[in-house]
């Protein structure tokens, strides 16, 4: 089939996010100026540069108590910092619980029973037992076409790696099995990896 998004797809559910899969999940933790912590997963997320290391995530909807966006972007606008927590398969249920459209005063760490730890370089909490956490300083918030579409770009200024995920000097993702987002209500888990050498390497 072929369709033009502006005309609609005619299917029971939008296939777009099922096409671009699997997508890594950025479990974004922030703190507002009021001192409240927030934790929410975003599947429009990725690493985008090495030098300096940078990541991005996109927020694509709004809450009535945040005007044109959601808690994460609103907090980052206030403070200029955020932390990306890597989601392992074992955390799938608590990650999902943190994804609800809770009022701004709800602390998802408490709501979902997620242990927190203080970040080292920024004023925010991180998921204590996450396989990795990237402390970030916001560099840009880019408004995209659409009512509530924003890209947040951050520079990674601190990296936490869980000790049991380090094997012979490498970060071994098979030790924790990262969770990835697919389309609809579907997720995937990475359990098998293989290596390829690029020509000239």
TrEMBL record:
<protein>
    <recommendedName>
        <fullName>Flavin reductase like domain-containing protein</fullName>
    </recommendedName>
</protein>
<dbReference type="GO" id="GO:0016646">
    <property type="term" value="F:oxidoreductase activity, acting on the CH-NH group of donors, NAD or NADP as acceptor"/>
</dbReference>
<dbReference type="Pfam" id="PF01613">
    <property type="entry name" value="Flavin_Reduct"/>
</dbReference>
<dbReference type="InterPro" id="IPR012349">
    <property type="entry name" value="Split_barrel_FMN-bd"/>
</dbReference>
<feature type="domain" description="Flavin reductase like">
    <location>
        <begin position="18"/>
        <end position="173"/>
    </location>
</feature>
<dbReference type="GO" id="GO:0010181">
    <property type="term" value="F:FMN binding"/>
</dbReference>
<dbReference type="InterPro" id="IPR002563">
    <property type="entry name" value="Flavin_Rdtase-like_dom"/>
</dbReference>
